[in-house]
Predict the structure of Putative ABC transport system permease protein.
Amino acid sequence: MFNRDRWNEIIEALTANWFRTLLTAFGVFWGIFILVILLAAGKGLENGVKRGFGDIATNTMFMWTQVASKPYKGLPKGRRYNFKIGDVSSIREKVPGLRYISPRNQLGGFGGTNNVIRGLNAGAFNVYGDYPEIINQDPITITSGRFINYGDIDNNRKVAVIGEGVKKELFKFGEEPIGEYIKIQGVSFMVIGTYMKKSNNGDREQGQKEIFVPFTSFSQAFNRADNVGWMAITAEDDNSITNLKKSIIDVVKTNHTIHPEDNRAVGNFDLYEEFSKINGLFIALRGVAYFVGTLVLLSGIIGISNIMLIVVKERTKEIGIRRALGASPWSVRGQILLESIFLTIISGMTGIAVSTGVIFLVNKLLEGMPASDETMFANPSVDLTVVFVALLILISSGLLAGLIPAQVAIRTKPIDALRAD
């Protein structure tokens, strides 16, 4: 129940030497402020780094052929080979737990010769021969028309989905590209869709300068037969592609008569493994933030405990009078603990409020800056759970800080307290 006299006494005790109280409260304020800011900064860095992965499915590996480094079954080392379309069905049959297997062929590239023409306009673009599943592994946003489908695959349709950057270079402003034809190395493809995407290497502009065509028509038009340039393989959510990687590579080695211990013949990049390393790094950073913040907060709590000991010493005669008049030990103890908790919570909540304001201003500043995929810091924030935990820490810390002074107060005998100067 609210007791006005008790709260007036608390305010009077804490403001009797307001400068000392302010310096003491600053320790808790600074501790909770540092804790929240460190956690928010870590989250902002984590968001920025993970944004560099784009929307690509992280439980994915990419696999390509290299040179065999060991002789095997009469075949020499140093030989080259190609993945075949039959490898896809073989991997799917022998390695359970895979969600998507997307074979891909590629033509041209940024900085190469002009390989795409429309009328008098020409450009050098990455052209990919793909299956429809690739849009689930490396998502793009279709801005008009559609993406390739299995009807296009089965019928070898010469159709293409172009990026907004390709559209800008090959078509006039305001011109509708759907239904129009472009020539890729002299072969005509009809545009059926346009898209936007964020390039995974952070180059937003280059991400719009790509063209997707059906894998089958790509192979037919550019004489790739049943060869596959490389594959994107994604595991089911309850499986790690890292754990399945060896089985996948073993299937390919068997199909192409490669020595089982030849670790150089099949190139691969495990995106999930890299993503897991980054996750581990940020878990460690959060641990460091909690550790540093807690130590700083603990120093503030020690300061409050010390100041409460001084306050108890200064009020020894007052405590003796209260005990002589019949005040119970719990009444004295409760008064000291309440003062300690009050000071801790007020200073801690001020720290939370100020740190939240700083985070808000930083987010506003980041929103006003030009968007860039290369920014390694984005949307710093702190989970509400952290705020609630901080409140519990403050309450516990207040009790801890006042416990020793409270025990000192109740152990003082009334007669000794009344004799104190």
